[in-house]
């Protein structure tokens, strides 16, 4: 049996490792267009900040280590076409030679590409996106002589980069059409994050539409906006990603949510023998049952394992996501899971949210810091729909996992309000903020 | 309607506040034998350590504040007898006067008393237990001139006191018949906690039975053990507590687990009109369905609310506990929920445990520290039975709440292994230790 995997990062590598474990005799080959496989892309901002010493620290396994585990990794190999009926792909190596490679199972794990707005001209230096280590190295080099950097976008990557760039001593201006973290959180929570950015010296411009790039002598000098020009020595675009689904399309696979590859719960595409996993794929949001495109690291790894197991003849199902995300924004921990109030309303649910401003542990114990919890539930059923946490002690935002787990189970606010959670003064209040919020929500959705 | 509450700390005060909220016209009176009500007893070690500046910082509400909320608090009032059939209690005030007080509902929230072993003689100074603020003040005063203190017992209070006394610069010797945290954790986890204590300069003597107190001129000079004498300027006994169920017995109420007051899920005792809540009560361990005595702060508050609601004519049920506990032992966070492997075996369950030694967040991100997770599940069903966490970054032990929540829901290891938990490098690994442990457990219990 021959299993080909296109893409050697999160989903692709998880799939390959699962496949060789389940089918030790299978021929498992990973084609990676770039030079590096098996690295933690979520760590890129932390190399730029200096928290992580070297790009290589992000690498989990080298090709040699993967070979020892039975995975044949071919870097610098671009898979350009698929003939699913014939069961082969076309691969172009770095030296330009093209070969056909047969497969029994093909996994498309081509990831996501940064969205580059139309206003970005070709051939201007000093404009960056960040999705892989070469991108990171380019930003690192490009910022050496910069004093002021503009970040366009205020999502996960934009916020992490704002912190990284301030840690490098740069002036940072963040330009965003909507709110800070506006696609992650409801409005009141966004305001807390924006206040922290401003406290940390970031020049935040929300509600500002970027309309063009200013440049001179082939180098970016800033961005034009509907509120005037913003000068910067470098411009980083972080306005989201789109699925790299072109190869899947060439294979004839159906696309789904946001143009991502449509898959079933086995990670099968609509084409026999062709599978997909990771940031090129849609998935199911368990809270609504709808299909969504939410490319994140753990999700990609989870999907990859499912695809790898199934391609190798095993039996695994992907249960979907609940929409969990977390980020550190300077000293704040920011987390969400499930649906925001706005998302719940968009989904046609009769939703109600409550907010609790508490402390992460007993107020009398040292270093008790503010934590705001928003819990969202469904009126009538009392079902939990989602949670948002903004915490001054960043690690205390990891409480989000309690709600993520309960969303998987379909639990209610009532049930949470009555739970035997851990209490000691250095860890929580007698009534942890989650319990207080759940009690308030249980009343509100009755 | 007249509601009398005996005991004005966690359960009693929660009940009284709930009662006045549900029945604003009711006459709600709290009798407290001591002088202080409504304080966080779990904070006592942190005043002794100096982390909390003053005993008063532990007080949540003063009697005047409670009066404003409609609760009539009478400190210095000892309820000495109950005539349930006649519907009155006998109360002795601090000045020695005795009155009869009629009730429609009586809540017994008399708490727990420290266990004092037989080898402690009467009338010797320098021997302490810690259950309330006067105890704490006595220890504080007694340690002013001490250089070396012996702690007998290595449970929650003993461990918290070891840290507190080291913070005061005292030499600490801890003497324990079993292991360190031996009733909280399985053996391998106990060893981690003991190693931390020793690293912090505590002289730990495990497997040592205390047989007597040494004293001179009416002052303790140490303890006698089956492994020789241990010299100390003060001796703190922290070998657990027993329910104060004497008053409930006088009311004719049936006792249950460990001599605690037997109650149903409404917090009713076996005697009509007489209720009980808090550390004097037994409860249901949801994982086994059995009745247990596990006196802890949140549990007492939860029970109190249920009793208060029901006494006031509302409708609340106490869903029981899952056995969650957490403590800080120097820099370690130590947490548990559900059953240990040993407890599961004692309960006749076919249990299997797995251990994962991981890091609390991405290894390449600064300050990633060791965390050990033990997950216990039931063979065949795959049901989660319990978890134990020992974490070097203490706050990361709060992950225990994810398992506590899943135990409430009766979830499986398989389900947890597949969950969409939060991931970003400052918070967790791509696969959080909980997910890794759950995956390993799911395999092991199949």
Q: Could you explain the architecture of this structure?
A:
- 2 copies of one chain form a homodimer.
- Chain A has 446 residues and is of the alpha/beta class.
- Chain A has 3 domains: 2-113 and 242-311, FAD/NAD(P)-binding domain; 116-237, 3-Layer(bba) Sandwich (FAD/NAD(P)-binding domain), CATH 3.50.50; 325-444, 3-Layer(bba) Sandwich (FAD/NAD(P)-binding domain), CATH 3.50.50.60.
- Chain A has 12 helices and 25 strands.
- In chain A, the strands form 7 sheets. In chain A, strands 3-2-1-7-18 form a 5-stranded parallel β-sheet. A 5-stranded parallel β-sheet of chain A has the order 9-16-10-11-12, covered by helices on one side. Chain A has a 5-stranded antiparallel β-sheet with strand order 21-22-25-24-23, with helices on both faces.
- The N and C termini of chain A lie far apart (56 Å).
- At the A-B interface, helix 8, strand 21, strand 22 and helix 10 of A face helix 8, strand 21, strand 22 and helix 10 of B.
Taking pLDDT < 50 over at least 5 consecutive residues as the criterion, the unreliable ranges of chain A are: none
**CATH homologous superfamily name of the largest domain in chain A?**
FAD/NAD(P)-binding domain
CATH topology of the largest domain in chain A: FAD/NAD(P)-binding domain
Helical fraction of chain A equals: 25-40%
Name given to the CATH architecture of the largest domain in chain A: 3-Layer(bba) Sandwich
Figure out the total of helices of chain A. Answer: 12
Q: State the end-to-end CA separation of chain A.
A: 56 Å
Beta-strand percentage of chain A?
A: 25-35%
Query: What is the quaternary state of this protein?
Result: homodimer
Largest sheet strand order of chain A = 3-2-1-7-18
Radius of gyration of chain A: 23 Å
């Amino acid at each position: 049996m021959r299993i080909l995997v296109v893409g050697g990062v999160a989903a692709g590598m998880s799939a390959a490792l699962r496949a060789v474990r389940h089918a030790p005799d299978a021929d498992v080959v990973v084609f990676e267009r770039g030079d590096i496989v098996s690295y933690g892309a979520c760590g890129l901002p932390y190399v730029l900040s200096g928290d992580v010493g070297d790009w290589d620290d992000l690498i989990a396994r080298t090709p040699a280590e993967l070979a020892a585990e039975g995975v044949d990794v071919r870097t610098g190999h671009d898979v350009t076409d698929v003939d699913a009926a014939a069961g082969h792909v076309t691969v172009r190596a770095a030296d330009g030679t093209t070969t056909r490679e047969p497969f029994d199972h093909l996994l498309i794990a081509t990831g996501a590409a940064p969205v580059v707005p139309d206003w970005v001209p070709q051939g201007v230096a000093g404009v960056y996106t960040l999705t892989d280590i070469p991108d990171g190295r380019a930003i690192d080099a490009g910022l050496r002589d910069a004093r002021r950097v503009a970040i366009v976008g205020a999502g996960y990557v934009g916020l992490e980069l704002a912190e990284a760039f301030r840690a490098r001593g740069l002036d940072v201006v963040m330009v965003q059409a909507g709110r800070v973290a506006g696609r992650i959180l409801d409005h009141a929570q966004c305001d807390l994050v924006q206040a922290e950015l401003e406290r940390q010296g970031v020049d935040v411009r929300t509600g500002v539409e970027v309309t063009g790039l200013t440049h001179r002598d082939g180098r970016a000098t800033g961005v034009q906006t509907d509120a005037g020009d913003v000068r910067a020595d470098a411009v980083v675009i972080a306005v989201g990603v789109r699925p790299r689904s072109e190869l899947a399309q060439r294979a004839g696979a159906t696309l789904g949510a946001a143009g991502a590859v449509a898959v079933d719960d086995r990670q099968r595409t609509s084409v026999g023998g062709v599978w997909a996993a990771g940031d090129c794929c849609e998935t199911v949001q368990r809270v609504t049952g709808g299909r969504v495109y939410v490319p994140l690291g753990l999700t990609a790894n989870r999907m990859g394992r499912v695809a790898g197991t199934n391609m190798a003849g095993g039996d695994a199902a992907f249960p979907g996501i609940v929409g969990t995300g977390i980020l550190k924004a300077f000293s704040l921990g920011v987390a969400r899971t499930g649906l925001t109030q706005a998302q719940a309303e968009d989904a046609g649910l009769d939703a109600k949210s409550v907010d609790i401003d508490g402390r992460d542990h007993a107020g009398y114990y040292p270093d008790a810091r503010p934590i705001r919890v928003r819990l969202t539930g469904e009126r009538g059923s009392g079902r939990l729909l989602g949670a948002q946490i903004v915490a001054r002690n960043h690690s205390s935002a990891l409480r989000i996992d309690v709600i993520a787990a309960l969303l998987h189970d379909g639990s209610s606010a009532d049930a949470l309000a009555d739970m035997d959670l851990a209490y000691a003064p250095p860890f929580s209040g007698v009534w942890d903020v989650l319990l207080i919020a759940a009690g308030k929500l249980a009343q509100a959705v009755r």
